[in-house]
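FIELD: query
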Amino acid sequence: MRALALASLLALSACGSKEKAEEPVAATPSPTGPHLGDVSLDQPLRATDNALTWSLEVAPGSIMMTRFAGHGSQGSVSQFYPVAPQLSDDKAVWTTKDTAGAPVTITFTNTHCTEGGDPAIDRPLTAEVKIGETMLHGCAGARPADGLNSQPLAEPGNVALANDSAADEVVGNGH
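FIELD: result
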């Protein structure tokens, strides 16, 4: 009986196709990563309002809001729980919370935005940041490699540089 079963298997294998099955192709991640328009979401991003009263830094593994001191108020730095953005249409949305548990929604839209000032700064994205019931509006784009708010570098005496220095002090003091 075993001989008959073995002969049957050999006969069936002889009837099969001689073509080799193709090796499965391994899925590889996109080398460009997630994008919103021309902006890579895998790089550090910055959003600010036109008056530079706040700055939001979004990077893989970190989301931080800095509110700058002004007119008798102190500056502050807030951490938000890092999450990956959800992409749909021309928007990237981060839905998270601050460390006190307030809901935070960060929305970057693939719509060109210009920050007023002298000189005006063009950014590729618009930004909305909702913290609890507070809504902030601004412009966003890749965080400059030099860490400054202005692009290109401002000349000495420019207000943007003075604001960056104040922001560095606020962050440095931990307020």
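FIELD: remark
Residues 39 and 85 are 13 Å apart (CA to CA).
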